[in-house]
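Anyone have tokens for Response regulator transcription factor? Sequence:
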Amino acid sequence: MTTSVLIVEDEPEFLRRFSEAVLTDPELSLIGTAGTAAAAIALLQAQPPDVVLLDLGLPDRDGVEVIRAAVQGPRPAEVLVVSMFDDDQHVLAAIEAGAAGYLLKDALPASIGASIRELRSGGSPISPGIARRILTRFRLALAPAHGPAAGVRSVAAASPLTDRETELLRLTAKGLSFETISELMGISPHTVVAHVRKIYRKLAVHSRGEAVYEATQLGLL
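Reply: yep, here.
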């Protein structure tokens, strides 16, 4: 039997790509598409699919409402989020609502069909950057749970950043330029950039603003 798929996407180009991926895969069947949360929920009630391929950024309502409707219905469907949103708020809200996978649109795997099959076989397809952020948060949340001594060492002991990187990020959070940070820390601009790249990689972010936000959320600043 084929896996039935409902695509919820309001951007025409992505809707076309996702539809073609499903229609050309012999193991999948496309039972409908929707460009709004309201239309998606109506389709879920009329003909529940096996899998919902969902964009969170819908024009009428938060896509999280569609996740809840999909997983809490009389015939629950599995939800694979495919979104541009990579911030903690959207990722955690989607997972808490019941999403079983989370892929970023700018880092899509070669085969959407393979991701859907992974989902159906009990896996959780997640973009590497999202997976790293989830693991980092999980690791830091567990750090104080290993006895009083661990609590005394504080979150800093579990920080993925070195002391030097943390210092640099604190200066960045104050709005200082890389040139000024270079002078204050007594290192070359090239070294500052190298540290910044390592920080981005460790926190799975792509900008200074995201790095400061993520570090603050994790209690690193």
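The radius of gyration is 21 Å.
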